[in-house]
Structure formats: structure tokens, C-alpha cells
Amino acid sequence: MDAWNGLMEGFATALTPMNLLFACIGVLLGTAVGVLPGIGPAMTVALLLPITYNVEPASAFIMFAGIYYGGMYGGSTTSILLNTPGESSSVITALEGNKMAKAGRAAQALATAAIGSFIAGSIGTALIVAFAPTIATAAVQLGAPSYFAIMVLALVAVTAVLGASKLRGFISLFIGLAIGLVGADLLTGQNRMTMGIPLLSDGIDIVVVAVAIFAIGEALWVAAHLRRRPLEVIPVGRPWMGKEDWKRSWMPWLRGTAYGFPFGALPAGGAELPTFLSYVTEKKLTKHPEEFGKGAIEGVAGPEAANNASAAGTLVPMLSLGLPTNATAAIMLAAMAGYGIQPGPALFEENGDLVWALIASLFIGNALLLILNLPLAPVWAKLLRTPRPYLYAGILFFASLGAYAVNLQWFDLLLLLVLGLLGLLMRRFGLPVLPMIIAVILGPRLEYQLRQALQLSSGEWSTLWSEPVAVVVYVFLALLFIVPMVLKRVRGAHPVADADVTSGSDSDQKVGS
Amino acid sequence: MTVAVAYMPGPEGDAAVDAAIAEANLRGTSVVVINATRGDALVDTHYATRAGVKTLDERLAEGGIDHEIVRPMGPDLADLILDAAEKAGATLLVVGLRRRTPVGKLLLGSVSQRLLLDAKMAVLAVHAAPSTH
């Protein structure tokens, strides 16, 4: 199916009244959870996984896509009005955005963030249409060794490049790989790490792991820090922009998009780096350098566009290779597995209608977000007044319901609690959640590719670097370790100054999306 | 000996502070302003902002009254206010009343009602005066 026809058919699917309704619910829910620090799109999609049992795949993914983009929009609102980034990708937005808001220009900051996100999201989605099918076609021909290499790259990159501490990242990664190993061996049927419990031989369901780590872990963490001094929110009316603001915003929007998309599309992805680069660039290029640090609109427009473009970019490896690089994408892949859809390069071939509906809904969701977000900004700001006990009671309820609904057995609830405690401990000791959740999802597939490669070569390990793509990936992986070390040496004297942003939730900081 | 006032930003709170200042002048005592929060939400509009505390402080200083502003945090607002008032040795507690429908009160409860019922000292309840603001 060629891309244009595919996309048009996708629009036909996504524009049915029912699916449009799902898109609306998705963007509203996504914005709401994006606004609230600590609750991100990843947790929301995890909590909603049970609906995949009785909703059409296309509708479910249309809703998830809405949540994914909506979370981005919501995060910027909190950054600007409260100086508390809802998501790690909005940390940079808070730098100038909050200063603008304090100077009485909250409406303009919100407007440039929303419109910038819309433009970056639309261009990013168009780039997905351009690249993802091509990459998928090329990737179909890759053998097991190349896949293995690409997955190793994704795991290591997510672990070592994002987040502050490599050691913590790797601890989290290995916890995830260990959880992924539980159950019967794929090839020989031997039980591994089941501790003699027959119920564990099917493995731990990914829904239970995701819900436990994101929802239960976060709820317990919040319960441990229930009372905190309220923050001061800056009152805001309807976002709008003057002519001067437009003139100063449109170039940063485009430059931010150019930074964000490639970074998102790389397996090493992440929105932190491109948002930071965009901020630095705008600071250098601006005609109003005196305003930087006091609320320059370019410093909001650029990073906000970069973070949305990166969110779009993340979908390229996810759709074309089945490779998640952020938590929300990881859970969307888990949802695909729940429908019995095999993520990977064959996705466009085998489930083209679903993928194109998802991409079309990204365009629709983006437009909906702009329409909803501009007039609704004051309502979203009100959401910040929700008392935590009500919020987290609801989350715990849906978490338990979701975990129980997987197999209808009490054992899953027990697992949920145990893994939830693990989630709490990970937050307590500053372990990033992202490497773990991606390891749980990629671990079994990584093992499968490795053993397939070794079986085909009758146990010859050299097969792992027998394909050119695999070699290139390993070289890239090596560079990934060397370049930051060199940069650190060079830039040692200039530490990044983003210390004056208060961190909203220690847990979601590293989850990103 | 002091006059305590349960304060939250808004016309009721301002009316309560005005009444407390008048009472303190009459009695020749100091004023303790109590601004409590449950601290269970990111944003609490009933909790004074830093700027709000500053203007309050200036207003009390203008009246030339000995004053103190306390901002306790805990699960129950009424308990917090009563504890703070007792600790300050208040002989009078001033409360600003909000207009609320019977249904609203049924659903949300009322801190003012708890204060009226449970306070060990005398309670002065005032309304916001819409015309003077």
C-alpha cells in the first residue's frame, strides 16, 4: 500500500464519529494527565490497557495517540504556570515560560507553546508518513543479528544517555530484564525464575508490570509525601498572541522542530537533549538577548516545538522497527501485543489499516488539541487544585481493576502489590523507570532474536557481527559511550544551568514521554 | 492575651482581619493571623501567596498592632486553626463566613461551623461586606 493511499484510508477510519469521539477523549485525558505532575501519558495508557479487551484496535490506538500528544501539551501548561514541569521534556519550557508568566505574559507563553506544539506535531507527523514506511520496508530484510544489535542499542541508549546516573540506569535495566525472564523458556519450555509457582510459568503480564510500576509505585510514593506546601499558580485567561509575538515565534518553532524530530527518531531518542539545544540556539540567535532569563518568548517557542517534534519522531522507530524509546511508546507496543499484533517492520504490511489510522489520528489529535487547549487553559489550571487523596484513590482503583482484568486471578493482584512496592523503592532510590519498562518489553524479544541467530549459525557467536547493519550499530553504540566522555572533558567547566526549576515529581522526571 | 483570626485570601478573610484589628485595638492586645492548608493539592487558593502574606503583614503593621502570622499544615483545617489559636492564648477567634448553599455545605462540610462548635474561646463571626470593597 503506498503511503498516500494508506494515509487517506487512515483518515477514513479515524474520521468515523465513534473514532473521533475516542480521539476527543484521548486528547482531553492526555492534557489532563499532562497537566498533573507525576501522572503522565505512560501511566494513563497503562491504566487504560484493559479497554483493549473490548474496543477495536484502531479506536484504542486513536485514543492512545491522543493521550500521547495531549500529555505533551498539558506538560507545558504546568511548566509555565507553576514552574513545575509535568514531564521531563518540559523542563526547559519552564525556564523562560514561568518568567513570562510572572511578568504577566502567561497568555502569550501558553499560546506560543500550544501553537508551536501544533506546528511541530503536524510537521513531525508528516515526517513519520515520509520515513516510517521506507524504514520498515528496508528493515524487513534485516536478519536476527541486526535486530539484536538494534535492540541492544535502544536498551543501552535509553539507559546510559538519558537520565543522570548510568549506574542507576543499568540497575533499572537489569531489574527489567530479570522480570522479562520470568516464565517458561521460549524454546525448551523449562521454567525460569518461577520459584516453583505454577502461575508464574506463563510469565508476568506486561499490563501488571506497567500498572504496578507507574500507578501503584507513584501512588505509594505520593502517599509517602502526601502533604506539601501548596505552590503558587499564576492566574491566566485565554491564551492569545500579538503580532510581535508571532514574528518572534515562527522561526524558533521551525528550528525546534528540526532539532526535535531526528532526536526522537533515533533509538537513543529523548526530548531532553533537543529541547536544551533549541533553547541554547534561540538564546544565541535572538534579537532580544536581554530578555533571556527574564521571559523571552523564543525560549518557550523553540523548546516546546522541539519536544513535540521529538514525540512524533519517537513513533518512527516504534512503528517501523517495533522499538520503543519512551515509556508511552513502550506501553502502546504492549497494547499491540495484547491484540496479537506483532510489532516490527512487518507492521505496515500486515496491519497497514491500523497503523495508518493511528497516523491519521495524530493529525486529527493535534488539531483537536489546538482547538481545545487555547480556550480551555484556565480549566486545566484549575485541575491543579484536585486534592491528591481523591486523585490517587481513583488511580489505585483503576490499577487494581486493570491488573485483575488481565487473567481474572487473585495472583495478579499480589504481583501488582509486590511490583508496586518495587516501583516505590525505585523512586525512593532514584532509579529511572524508563529503562526498566523498556527492558521488560524488549527483553524477551531480544532473547528471541539472539537465540534465533545462534540457532541459524549452529552456535557460532561470530554471527552476531556478520551483518553490515549490525556492525554499524555496534560502532554507533561505541561512539555513544565515547562522545559524551570527550564532551564532558571539553565542557567540564560549563555545567548546565537549569537548577532553578523545581522538580515536580521525582519519578516522572525520568520517565519522560 | 491575643485575638486570633482564621484567614484565607478573599473578601471574607479581609473582613475577618479588619474585625480582628478593630477588636485588638479595643482590647489593647496583639493579633495572630492563622492561614492553614491541608497541603494535599498542588495548588490551594485558600492558602495565601507570598505576596499576599506580605500585604497582610504591611496592613497589620500600619495599624501599629503587635502581630504574628502562622501558617500550619495538616489534614484537618478546623483542628489546625483551633490548635494555633489555643497555643497563642487567644481569648477571641474571628472567623469570616462564606455564603454557601445548604447542599454545598452538606457535600463539603464547613470549617467555620466546626470552629463555632469546637472553639474554647469566644468566636466572632463576620460576613464579607460587599459594598465597602
Q: TL;DR?
A:
The complex is a heterodimer of chains A (513) and B (133). Helices cover 71% and strands 1% of the residues of chain A.
Number of strands of chain B: 5
**Overall structural domain count of chain A:** 1
Give the overall pLDDT of chain B as a whole number.
87
Strand ordering within the main sheet of chain A: 1-2
Report the biggest beta sheet of chain A as strand number plus sense, adding barrel if it closes. 2 strands, antiparallel
Structural class of chain A: mainly alpha
- Taking the alpha carbons of the first and last residues of chain A, their distance comes to 30 Å
Helix content of chain A: over 70%
**Count of strand segments of chain A:** 2
- Globally, the shape of chain B reads globular
Number of helical elements of chain A: 19
Indicate the mean pLDDT of chain A: 84
The topology string of helices and strands of chain B comes to EHEHEHEHHE
SSE pattern of chain A:
HHHHHHHEEHHHHHHHHHHHH
* % residues in beta strands of chain A: under 5%
Instruction: Report the total helices of chain B.
Output: 5
Oligomer: heterodimer
Radius of gyration of chain A from CA coordinates: 22 Å
